[in-house]
C-alpha cells in the first residue's frame, strides 16, 4: 500500500469512511435440501444482537431457575432456525427487549426533532419487511412520539418520529454501547471528571496517530492501529457530547432560577412598565367618572385601546405576552388569532396587577365582576373570583352599583332641568319566581310573581322647535278649544296634508306591486290559474333553482315618500333608564303611586285638591257619587301607600336575613308544597290585582256590618212606634241612649264614612232622623267626602228633612265645609229658593266666599277659558314643568297602561292633569294585524297564510290574545305583508289581461313625458281597482287588503324606522274608523283620545315635539329607529328579566335596574366580534318571501279573487280551504263604514271620555 502523509488524514470523517469501506461483511446462508423461495430470516437481527451483546446470548440458552438440573444443559439446535421460519415466543420477547434497549440507548424524545424510518432501520439492523416491528417498538418506548406517514411523488414512504438521537450521534452497526455519564455529588465534579476523560482520550488518540504514521508502510499493523484510532475517536466524541448535554442541563437549571432570569436593567425597565400599566387601568375614567355617564364609557374600544397602549408604552411586557400566548400553530377556529390571544393575555394582565396588590383595582376586574353578576353570579362566586384576582370584591361592586341607585336624583336634575320637557316611559314587568330555590324567601313575602314597573325618561330632540316652548300661545294654550272640535275633524279627509301623504305612499306601494308582478315574475307556458298544485310547485322549483331571469320590459320607478321629522345629522337618542318601581302599574293604585313617583323625581306637584263636588247640569244636581268615589280612591291610595311601606320594610329586613343566612326561611314544607305553588294562575295581568280584591272584600265587610246595625235600629224603631204600648217608644229612646256605644261611634260607619244619620237622610226617613236627633246624635257630623246630613238633604231636594235639621241647629254655611260647598251654596246653584231663604238667616258671607273660590277650582273647564295671556312687554314667558301644567308631560305606554292612566286622572284630575297618554306603536302594530285578520281571515286570507304558505304557527290565537307572546308579533306582521303582496301580485296578473292595461302607445307616451311607465300603469291599475270594486262585492273585499291593510302596516313600520311624525298621524287617522267598525272598543277609544289630543288638546309645541320624537334611535343610524314602547320592552323589561334570573332579592333587582345600561354595555363589550367573541357565525339573512308570495298569488288566481263579476254581492267564506257560506257584510268596505260610525257616535264618545266636553256642551245648551 502506498504511503500516506499526515496532512492528508486531517479530516476524521473521511478517515472513518475509508475504514468503513475496508470492512468485510460476512453473510452466512443456510442451505436446505429442497429449493424454496426464501424470505429474509427474522433471526438476522437476533444473531447480530447476540454477536454484539453477550448478555442477550445468554437469554437464548439459559433456562428458568425452576428448571430441573437434568434439563439445564444446552438444548439441541432448533430446526426452525434451519428453515428460516418465525421465532418462538421466548425469542420474540428477547428480541423485543433488545430492540427496546437499543432504542433507549440511542434515542430520546425531543419536541420538534424528526427522525426518518430509514435511519432507525439501519441503526437497529432491521430489514424493511419488518417495519411494523419498528413501529410497535417506537410506540412502546416513546408513547409521546408522533408517527406520521409522508407520501410524496418519487419519494419512498417514511415515518416521521418526534425523537432525536441521544447525544446527536449513532454508529450504524456499531457494537459499542453509548456512554452514559456517571452520577456525582455535584455538577462541578461531574464536569471535571468528563474533562479529564476527554483529555486522556485525546492523548491516546495522538499517540495512536504517531504510531499510525510510523507504521504506515506496514499494512497489517496499519489496519490494526486504524481500528484502534477509530474506537478511541468514538470514545472521545461520546465524552464531548456528554459534556455538551450536561452544559445544556445546567443552562436549563439556571433559567429556572428566578433570581437570575433578568438583568438589573431589565428588572428596572419592567418595574417602570408596571407602574405605567397601573396608570392605564386606574378608575380615572369609569369608577371616578360621573354617575350618569358611566355606561357611555364602556365600549369594545376600551379593550382594544388598552392593548394598543400596552404595545406602545410597555414593549418588554408586550414581548413577554407575545412569547407566552402567540404560536405558529394554526387553530381550528379561525377567529382565535394571535391578536385575540394577545387581548385575552392583556385582560389577564389586569388580573395579575390586582393579584400584585389589592389597591391596584382595575377597570377590567370591575367589568368582569359585572359580567358575571349579569349572568347570575352570587356573592360567594364573585368573592371566589376576587380571591384569584379576576374580579373585585362583592361589597365593592355593590357599592359601585348603589352609587347610581342612591344618587339618581342628581342624574335626573342634570339630564332634565326644569326648563326642558321630558317624555316618560313605563311598562309592567312580570317576573315569575316560582322555582324551588326561591320558595324559602317568598314563604314570608307572599306570591311567587313579582309585578314591578320599568320606567325610563327620554330627553326630546327639540331641534328647530325650541321657540315654540318660549311662547305661551304655543306652549300652554291648546291648538283650539275642544268645544270647536267636530266629528269630521277626526277623519283624515279633512286634513289635506295627511291625505296627500297617504295617497302618495299607497301609489308607491302599487308601483312596487307592478314592478314585481310585471318585471320579476317569468310567465309560464301554462296560465297560473289553470295550473295544478303539482305543476305550479314544479315551475316554482325551477325558478328557485335557476333564479328568476326576466327581461325588464317596463320602466317603473319606486320612490320613498317618507322623510324624517328632523333633517339634522342623526344622533342616538338620549334615554335614561330610571330606578325600578315595586308598584304594579296594572292596578289603579299602583299607577297613581307611579305617577306620584314621576312627579317627585321631576319636580311636578301631585297634591290632591281639598274641594271636590262636580255639578251635573243635565240633571241640575251635584254629583255626590263622584265625590264619594274620589274619597274612596284617595282612601284606597293612602292605604296602598301604607301597605307598600310595610311591604318594602319587610323586603329589606327579609333580604338582610337572607344574605346573612341563606337557610333562614327554609322549612320542611318546601318540598311538599313545590308542586302546589308552581301551578299559579296568571291573575296578575288583570286590571285589579289580588290586593285590590282583598280591599274590596274588606270594604264589603265594613258596609255589611254598618247595614246590619242600621237595619237593626230601623226595625226596633218601627216596632216601638207601632206597638200598642204608649210607653214603648220612650223605652226605645232610653235603650238607644243606654246602648249608644253600639250605634253612635266612629267605628259604626260604612267605608265612605257615612253615619246612621247620613243613611237616614238619604233614605228620606224623617222619623228616624227625628229619633236620632232626640237621642243626641251629632247633627253636623261629616262623612268622608265632607258632606253633612244637611248637605245630603239639600242635594236630595228634601225640604222637610232640611227644615228639621236646620231647626235643630244644623250648620248651613261656615268653616265646617272645607271639602265641598256649603248647603247654602248648593241650594243657590240648584236654584232651591225655599231652602235658600231658610238658610240665609245665619250665613257667614266672608267664609262662604273664601270657600266658594276653593270650590270653583275643582270644576272641569276648558283651559282656554281660564288662562289669561299677559302682555308680552310686561312679562317674559319661560317654560317650567312644575308651573306649566297646561303643557302636558307625555307618558308612553301600551293600551292597558293608557287606559288605567285615564282612570286615575278621572278619579283625581287635579293631582294628575299634568300628564297625557301616548300610545306605543309596537303594540298598535299588533292591534292593526289583529284587525286585518278579523276582517280578512274568513275570505281566504287565513287559508293563504296558514295552509298555502305552510305557516302552522299563524293560528287565530296568534293574531288574538297571544299576539305579544312567543315572537308572534313578528310572524303576524310578516303574514300581513306577504298576504298583501300575494293578493297584490294576483291583482297585477289579472290587470295585465284586462282592457285597462295601457297600450303600447300609452306606455310610450308616458315614457316620453316622464321618463318611466309609472303614470300609464298606475292610472290604469287604480281605475281597474275602482271599477271592479263597484261591480263586484268580492272584488272590493279582496281589494281592501292591498289598498288598506297591507300598505297601512308598511307605512306604519316605515314611519317608525325613519321617525316621520306626520306619517304616524296618518296611520292613527286611518286606524280610528277601522277599529270602530270592527268593534275593537278599547282600540278605537285609544285612537279617538290620541287624535283629539294631537289635533286639539295638546299645545302646538307638544305636538311638534312628539312628531320629532315618536321613535328612538339606538346607534344614530338612519332609518333604524324603534318605537318608544319597543325600546321599553327591549332595553328595560327583557334585560331585567334576563339579568335577575339568578338572583333572589328585590334589592338586587333594583340595583340591576338602576344600572341596566351599564350591564348591557358590559355584555356588548365582551361579546363584540372585535374583542372576545370567537364564535364563527354568519349574519342571519331573512328568507326571501317571494316564493311564499307566489304560492299565495297562484291560489288567488285559481280562486278568481280578482276576476270581477258584475252584480256579485256575496263573498265566499273559506273553511279549511273550501267554500262554506259567506263573509259577513259588516267586514266589507270596513273603512267607509267605520267613518260613518265614528261620525254617528262622536258626541256620545266625547261625552264619555272628556269631562270638559260635557261641561261645555251643557253650557251651550243653556245659552241656546
TrEMBL record:
<dbReference type="Pfam" id="PF12796">
    <property type="entry name" value="Ank_2"/>
</dbReference>
<dbReference type="InterPro" id="IPR046496">
    <property type="entry name" value="DUF6589"/>
</dbReference>
<feature type="compositionally biased region" description="Acidic residues">
    <location>
        <begin position="668"/>
        <end position="689"/>
    </location>
</feature>
<feature type="region of interest" description="Disordered">
    <location>
        <begin position="665"/>
        <end position="690"/>
    </location>
</feature>
<dbReference type="Pfam" id="PF20231">
    <property type="entry name" value="DUF6589"/>
</dbReference>
<protein>
    <submittedName>
        <fullName>Ankyrin repeat domain-containing 12</fullName>
    </submittedName>
</protein>
<dbReference type="InterPro" id="IPR036770">
    <property type="entry name" value="Ankyrin_rpt-contain_sf"/>
</dbReference>
<dbReference type="InterPro" id="IPR002110">
    <property type="entry name" value="Ankyrin_rpt"/>
</dbReference>
<feature type="region of interest" description="Disordered">
    <location>
        <begin position="54"/>
        <end position="77"/>
    </location>
</feature>
<feature type="domain" description="DUF6589">
    <location>
        <begin position="1067"/>
        <end position="1164"/>
    </location>
</feature>
Amino acid at each position: 500500500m502506498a504511503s500516506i502523509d499526515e496532512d492528508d488524514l486531517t479530516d476524521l470523517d473521511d478517515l472513518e469512511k475509508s475504514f468503513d469501506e475496508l470492512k468485510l461483511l460476512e453473510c452466512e446462508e443456510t442451505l436446505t435440501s429442497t429449493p424454496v423461495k426464501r424470505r429474509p430470516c427474522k433471526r438476522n437481527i437476533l444473531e447480530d444482537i447476540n454477536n454484539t451483546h453477550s448478555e442477550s446470548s445468554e437469554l437464548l440458552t439459559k433456562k428458568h431457575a425452576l428448571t430441573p438440573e437434568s434439563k439445564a444443559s444446552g438444548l439441541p439446535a432448533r430446526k426452525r432456525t434451519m428453515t428460516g421460519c418465525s421465532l418462538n415466543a421466548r425469542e420474540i420477547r428477547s428480541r423485543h427487549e433488545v430492540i427496546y434497549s437499543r432504542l433507549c440507548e440511542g434515542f430520546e424524545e425531543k419536541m420538534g426533532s424528526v427522525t426518518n424510518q430509514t435511519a432507525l432501520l439501519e441503526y437497529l439492523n432491521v430489514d424493511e419487511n419488518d417495519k411494523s416491528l419498528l413501529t410497535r417498538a417506537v410506540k412502546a418506548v416513546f408513547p409521546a412520539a408522533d408517527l406520521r406517514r409522508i407520501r410524496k411523488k418519487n419519494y419512498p414512504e417514511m415515518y416521521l418520529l418526534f425523537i432525536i438521537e441521544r447525544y446527536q450521534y449513532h454508529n450504524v452497526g456499531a457494537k459499542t454501547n453509548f456512554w452514559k455519564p456517571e452520577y456525582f455529588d455535584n455538577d462541578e465534579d461531574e464536569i471535571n471528571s468528563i474533562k479529564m476523560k476527554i483529555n486522556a482520550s485525546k492523548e491516546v488518540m495522538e499517540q495512536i496517530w504517531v504510531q499510525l504514521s510510523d507504521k504506515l508502510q506496514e499494512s497489517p499493523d496499519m489496519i490494526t492501529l486504524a481500528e484502534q484510532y477509530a474506537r478511541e475517536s468514538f470514545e472521545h466524541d461520546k465524552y464531548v457530547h456528554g459534556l455538551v448535554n450536561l452544559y445544556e442541563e445546567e443552562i436549563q437549571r439556571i433559567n429556572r432560577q428566578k433570581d437570575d432570569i433578568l438583568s438589573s436593567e431589565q428588572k428596572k425597565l419592567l418595574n417602570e412598565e408596571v407602574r405605567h400599566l397601573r396608570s392605564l387601568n386606574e378608575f380615572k375614567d369609569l369608577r371616578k367618572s360621573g354617575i350618569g355617564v358611566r355606561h357611555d364609557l364602556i365600549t369594545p374600544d376600551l379593550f382594544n385601546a388598552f392593548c394598543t397602549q400596552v404595545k406602545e408604552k410597555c414593549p418588554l411586557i408586550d414581548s413577554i405576552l407575545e412569547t407566552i400566548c402567540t404560536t405558529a400553530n394554526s387553530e381550528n377556529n379561525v377567529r382565535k388569532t394571535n391578536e385575540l390571544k394577545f387581548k385575552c393575555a392583556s385582560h389577564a394582565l389586569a388580573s395579575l396587577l390586582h393579584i400584585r396588590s389589592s389597591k391596584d383595582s382595575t377597570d377590567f376586574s370591575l367589568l368582569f365582576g359585572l359580567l358575571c353578576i349579569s349572568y347570575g353570579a352570587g356573592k360567594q362566586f364573585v368573592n371566589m373570583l376576587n380571591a384569584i384576582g379576576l374580579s373585585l370584591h362583592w361589597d365593592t361592586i355593590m357599592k359601585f352599583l348603589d352609587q347610581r341607585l342612591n344618587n339618581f336624583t342628581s342624574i335626573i336634575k342634570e339630564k332634565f332641568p326644569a326648563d326642558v320637557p321630558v317624555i316618560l316611559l313605563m311598562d309592567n314587568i312580570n317576573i315569575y319566581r316560582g322555582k324551588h330555590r326561591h320558595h324559602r324567601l317568598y314563604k314570608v313575602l307572599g306570591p311567587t310573581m313579582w309585578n314591578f314597573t320599568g320606567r325610563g325618561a327620554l330627553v326630546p330632540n327639540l331641534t328647530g322647535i325650541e321657540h315654540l316652548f318660549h311662547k305661551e300661545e304655543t306652549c300652554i294654550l291648546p291648538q283650539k278649544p275642544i268645544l270647536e272640535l267636530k266629528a269630521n275633524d277626526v277623519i283624515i279627509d279633512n286634513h289635506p296634508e295627511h291625505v296627500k301623504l297617504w295617497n302618495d305612499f299607497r301609489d308607491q306601494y302599487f308601483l312596487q306591486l307592478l314592478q314585481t308582478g310585471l318585471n320579476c315574475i317569468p310567465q309560464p307556458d301554462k296560465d297560473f290559474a289553470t295550473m295544478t298544485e303539482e305543476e305550479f310547485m314544479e315551475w316554482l322549483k325551477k325558478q328557485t333553482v335557476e333564479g328568476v331571469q326576466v327581461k325588464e320590459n317596463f320602466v317603473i320607478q319606486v320612490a320613498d315618500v317618507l322623510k324624517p321629522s328632523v333633517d339634522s345629522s342623526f344622533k342616538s337618542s338620549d334615554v335614561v333608564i330610571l330606578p325600578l318601581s315595586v308598584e304594579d302599574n296594572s292596578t289603579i293604585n299602583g299607577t297613581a303611586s307611579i305617577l306620584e313617583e314621576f312627579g317627585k323625581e321631576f319636580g311636578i306637584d301631585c297634591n290632591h285638591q281639598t274641594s271636590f263636588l262636580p255639578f251635573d247640569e243635565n240633571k241640575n244636581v251635584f254629583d255626590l257619587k263622584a265625590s264619594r268615589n274620589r274619597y274612596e280612591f284617595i282612601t284606597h291610595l293612602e292605604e296602598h301607600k301604607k301597605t307598600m311601606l310595610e311591604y318594602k320594610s319587610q323586603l329589606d329586613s327579609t333580604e338582610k336575613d337572607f344574605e346573612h343566612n341563606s337557610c333562614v326561611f327554609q322549612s320542611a314544607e318546601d318540598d311538599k308544597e313545590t308542586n302546589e305553588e308552581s301551578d299559579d294562575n296568571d291573575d296578575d295581568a288583570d286590571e285589579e290585582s289580588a290586593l285590590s280584591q282583598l280591599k274590596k272584600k274588606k270594604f264589603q265587610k265594613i258596609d255589611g256590618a254598618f247595614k246590619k246595625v242600621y237595619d237593626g235600629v230601623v226595625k226596633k224603631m218601627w216596632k216601638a212606634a207601632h206597638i200598642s204600648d204608649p210607653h214603648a217608644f220612650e223605652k226605645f229612646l232610653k235603650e238607644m241612649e243606654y246602648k249608644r256605644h253600639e250605634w253612635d261611634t266612629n267605628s259604626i260607619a260604612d267605608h265612605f264614612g257615612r253615619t246612621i244619620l247620613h243613611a237616614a237622610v238619604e233614605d228620606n226617613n224623617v222619623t228616624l232622623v227625628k229619633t236620632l236627633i232626640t237621642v243626641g246624635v251629632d247633627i253636623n257630623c261629616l262623612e268622608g267626602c265632607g258632606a253633612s246630613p244637611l248637605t245630603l238633604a239639600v242635594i236630595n231636594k228634601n225640604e222637610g228633612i232640611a227644615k228639621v235639621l236646620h231647626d235643630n241647629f244644623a250648620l248651613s254655611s261656615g268653616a265646617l265645609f272645607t271639602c265641598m260647598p256649603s248647603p247654602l251654596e248648593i241650594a243657590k246653584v240648584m236654584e232651591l229658593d225655599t231652602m235658600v231663604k231658610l238658610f240665609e238667616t245665619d250665613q257667614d258671607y266672608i267664609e262662604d266666599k273664601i270657600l266658594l273660590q276653593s270650590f270653583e277650582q275643582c270644576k272641569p273647564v276648558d283651559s282656554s277659558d281660564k288662562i289669561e295671556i299677559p302682555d308680552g312687554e310686561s312679562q317674559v314667558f319661560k317654560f317650567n314643568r312644575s308651573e306649566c301644567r297646561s303643557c302636558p308631560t307625555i307618558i308612553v305606554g301600551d293600551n292597558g297602561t293608557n287606559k288605567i292612566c285615564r282612570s286615575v286622572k278621572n278619579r283625581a284630575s287635579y293631582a294628575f292633569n299634568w300628564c297625557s297618554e301616548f300610545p306605543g306603536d309596537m303594540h298598535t302594530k299588533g292591534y292593526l294585524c289583529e284587525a286585518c285578520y278579523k276582517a280578512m281571515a274568513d275570505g281566504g286570507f287565513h287559508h293563504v297564510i296558514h295552509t298555502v304558505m305552510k305557516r302552522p304557527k299563524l293560528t287565530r290565537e296568534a293574531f288574538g290574545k297571544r299576539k305579544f307572546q312567543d315572537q308572534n308579533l313578528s310572524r303576524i306582521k310578516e303574514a300581513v305583508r306577504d298576504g298583501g303582496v300575494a293578493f297584490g301580485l294576483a291583482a297585477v296578473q289579472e290587470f295585465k289581461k284586462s282592457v285597462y292595461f295601457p297600450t303600447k302607445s300609452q306606455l310610450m307616451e308616458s315614457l316620453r313625458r316622464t321618463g318611466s311607465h309609472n303614470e300609464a300603469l298606475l292610472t290604469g291599475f287604480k281605475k281597474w281597482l275602482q271599477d271592479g270594486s263597484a261591480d263586484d262585492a268580492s272584488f272590493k273585499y279582496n281589494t281592501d287588503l292591498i289598498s288598506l291593510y297591507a300598505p297601512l302596516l308598511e307605512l306604519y313600520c316605515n314611519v317608525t324606522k325613519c321617525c316621520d311624525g306626520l306619517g304616524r298621524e296618518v296611520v292613527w287617522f286611518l286606524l280610528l274608523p277601522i277599529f270602530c267598525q270592527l268593534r275593537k272598543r278599547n282600540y278605537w277609544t285609544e285612537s279617538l283620545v290620541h287624535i283629539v289630543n294631537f289635533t286639539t288638546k295638546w299645545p302646538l309645541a307638544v305636538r311638534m315635539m312628539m312628531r320629532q320624537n315618536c321613535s328612538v334611535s339606538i346607534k344614530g343610524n338612519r332609518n333604524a329607529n324603534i318605537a318608544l314602547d319597543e325600546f321599553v320592552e327591549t332595553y328595560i323589561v327583557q334585560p331585567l328579566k334576563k339579568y335577575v334570573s339568578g338572583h333572589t332579592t328585590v334589592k338586587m333587582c333594583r340595583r340591576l335596574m338602576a344600572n341596566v345600561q351599564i350591564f348591557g354595555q358590559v355584555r356588548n363589550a365582551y361579546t363584540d366580534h372585535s374583542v372576545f367573541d370567537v364564535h364563527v357565525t354568519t349574519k342571519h339573512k331573512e328568507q326571501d318571501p317571494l316564493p311564499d308570495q307566489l304560492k299565495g298569488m297562484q291560489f288567488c288566481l285559481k280562486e278568481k279573487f280578482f276576476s270581477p263579476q258584475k252584480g256579485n254581492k256575496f263573498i265566499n267564506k273559506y273553511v279549511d280551504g273550501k267554500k262554506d257560506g259567506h263573509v259577513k257584510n259588516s267586514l266589507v268596505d270596513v273603512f267607509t263604514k267605520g267613518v260613518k260610525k265614528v261620525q254617528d257616535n262622536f258626541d256620545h264618545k266625547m261625552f264619555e271620555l272628556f269631562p270638559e266636553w260635557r261641561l261645555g256642551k251643557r253650557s251651550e245648551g243653556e245659552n241656546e
